[in-house]
């Protein structure tokens, strides 16, 4: 009697274990929605992306799938208590996968494989070309025969070792009932090698071993360049990942200390942070005073003072003194982790240009095969020479391979995302780049966007101490800039709060000693029928204190607004602040359209009205109350200082104080759009010229291989122009030197 379970039970147990592992590795997004990341090494082109995304969407309980080509990673959102059968589904699609593990600095195996294959192909191709020169120069029959066999011997390892990259991909596609760009490549090089071997055996005058090996060599050059460009984009992500410590010193309640892996650090834990350490997770300082290098979050090189009550973000550097902080969120939800996810997602969006390229590539392979076959039939009918007919068909098959078309969009998106990241601007996906390039209107929030959002309380000497203390206690429950200012300036309080509720765009209410207190808009706090009146503290509808603030323009605001005006963009301010405060900022910046006192829903209505008028609006905002407007706009942008929900809703996040990030992102997006269109044009023009010439029989397989490879390299080189181009908007240039500007009075919470 065997002690082993039946085979079918063992397989089922393995599947259940894999699904349980996926469930444990998933992130809980709330509302029963989970996300898991799976590494799929076999993904390398637009056709692969389409197949994986479409296939996984058919799995029950899967709601969203997105493939990142640079990291070979698939992010899957699923709903329910039990993880879906994702790994078996990938196996069935021909793309075996496993749980994604963050890059730990290990050398990239794919790059090494490409370089080795490229070296073998280059050695074989160059030597065969040298032998071919002798044959073309008129070698006698015996010499030609010997050189052809030597060429065959050199071509064989190139086909088997270097060509396996294309063969493996083509076979994976075909055995799953689909096609990709590597199918015509594999057919072309196989036919060229087979026909050349036939001619060699029969002592023919011509052989095309040079065409087969040169095609592999130049295709590998293009594929390696593409991989290197994606690795450059990933290098930025790895740089961010290295800013996160692998562990943290956690303080126990009994006074002991434990060093825990960063993944095991939970909200509520207390962490000891020595001078020189990086902050491992987001938290709030409980003890100690120090200076922090917050350049990763703000772009500011000057140290910022940190003291009890200060919020700190993962990745910032503790410079001068020991600190004790209480953890606010898990490492996977920290500011640094969010920045990493934003950077990795930069090329993953299903943008319009990429969808267009995908559709073209999907139709291209069948068209190429049909064209080559019809060319063969035509030449057979015209000449009756099967050798000549198949030679021309091979040239057609090779010269029309859609590699350039497949590279046209993703390579530009990778370069553009890298360019923006170097200027401290994060972009979520390629569709955001396209939508940014289309805008004709820019809509700004005020507090925290056009201004720094670091208000200063004025006239506080006239506020009763007890009322001030209660206001500070209530304000301490909010992250709104005005609330933080009140909490920082208010005296200590011994009151206790209950039933605290924050109303976005209105204020905060809480019960103190059985009385209902409201801190926020006067019209809301006092139940008056007016919309303005500043920020007040009211008890049961009776005003106890009024608060007045002042704020400064964000550095670079004037230059950014003027640049966008010169580009012909319509400018507007939509703010929840008072009429006077909004008018002062709008007048200082020369923005004619300004609306004040708007609730979040009213901002959304204004953006929807612009859309109905055919306008494509960019929304720039930072507050909790701006999240609906950011989501409703054609494209949106938020500073890194924005509330978490605002950063999540925005398409772009800029990690700096200067507002010149907005026109810079617009300029890079427009340049990326131009390069994509140029790449499409290059691919179409190339095929329009090359295909008729090949069908007419004027192109040998070798020339076809060189021409097709050149078209792919040309597309990559055109995309690289985006890195070399000097922007009209200089990041951190004059805008950084521009002073913060005059102080403007703030009358109400935004």
From TrEMBL:
<dbReference type="InterPro" id="IPR027256">
    <property type="entry name" value="P-typ_ATPase_IB"/>
</dbReference>
<keyword id="KW-0547">Nucleotide-binding</keyword>
<dbReference type="InterPro" id="IPR018303">
    <property type="entry name" value="ATPase_P-typ_P_site"/>
</dbReference>
<dbReference type="InterPro" id="IPR036412">
    <property type="entry name" value="HAD-like_sf"/>
</dbReference>
<dbReference type="InterPro" id="IPR036163">
    <property type="entry name" value="HMA_dom_sf"/>
</dbReference>
<feature type="transmembrane region" description="Helical">
    <location>
        <begin position="679"/>
        <end position="696"/>
    </location>
</feature>
<keyword id="KW-1278">Translocase</keyword>
<dbReference type="Pfam" id="PF00403">
    <property type="entry name" value="HMA"/>
</dbReference>
<dbReference type="InterPro" id="IPR023299">
    <property type="entry name" value="ATPase_P-typ_cyto_dom_N"/>
</dbReference>
<feature type="transmembrane region" description="Helical">
    <location>
        <begin position="117"/>
        <end position="139"/>
    </location>
</feature>
<keyword id="KW-1133">Transmembrane helix</keyword>
<feature type="transmembrane region" description="Helical">
    <location>
        <begin position="702"/>
        <end position="720"/>
    </location>
</feature>
<feature type="transmembrane region" description="Helical">
    <location>
        <begin position="363"/>
        <end position="382"/>
    </location>
</feature>
<keyword id="KW-0472">Membrane</keyword>
<feature type="transmembrane region" description="Helical">
    <location>
        <begin position="388"/>
        <end position="416"/>
    </location>
</feature>
<dbReference type="InterPro" id="IPR001757">
    <property type="entry name" value="P_typ_ATPase"/>
</dbReference>
<keyword id="KW-0812">Transmembrane</keyword>
<dbReference type="Pfam" id="PF00702">
    <property type="entry name" value="Hydrolase"/>
</dbReference>
<keyword id="KW-1003">Cell membrane</keyword>
<dbReference type="InterPro" id="IPR006121">
    <property type="entry name" value="HMA_dom"/>
</dbReference>
<dbReference type="InterPro" id="IPR017969">
    <property type="entry name" value="Heavy-metal-associated_CS"/>
</dbReference>
<dbReference type="InterPro" id="IPR059000">
    <property type="entry name" value="ATPase_P-type_domA"/>
</dbReference>
<keyword id="KW-0813">Transport</keyword>
<keyword id="KW-0067">ATP-binding</keyword>
<feature type="transmembrane region" description="Helical">
    <location>
        <begin position="145"/>
        <end position="162"/>
    </location>
</feature>
<dbReference type="InterPro" id="IPR023298">
    <property type="entry name" value="ATPase_P-typ_TM_dom_sf"/>
</dbReference>
<feature type="domain" description="HMA">
    <location>
        <begin position="34"/>
        <end position="98"/>
    </location>
</feature>
<comment type="similarity">
    <text>Belongs to the cation transport ATPase (P-type) (TC 3.A.3) family. Type IB subfamily.</text>
</comment>
<dbReference type="Pfam" id="PF00122">
    <property type="entry name" value="E1-E2_ATPase"/>
</dbReference>
<dbReference type="InterPro" id="IPR023214">
    <property type="entry name" value="HAD_sf"/>
</dbReference>
<keyword id="KW-0460">Magnesium</keyword>
<keyword id="KW-0479">Metal-binding</keyword>
<keyword id="KW-0406">Ion transport</keyword>
<protein>
    <submittedName>
        <fullName>Cu2+-exporting ATPase</fullName>
    </submittedName>
</protein>
<keyword id="KW-0597">Phosphoprotein</keyword>
<feature type="transmembrane region" description="Helical">
    <location>
        <begin position="183"/>
        <end position="201"/>
    </location>
</feature>
<feature type="transmembrane region" description="Helical">
    <location>
        <begin position="207"/>
        <end position="225"/>
    </location>
</feature>
<dbReference type="InterPro" id="IPR008250">
    <property type="entry name" value="ATPase_P-typ_transduc_dom_A_sf"/>
</dbReference>
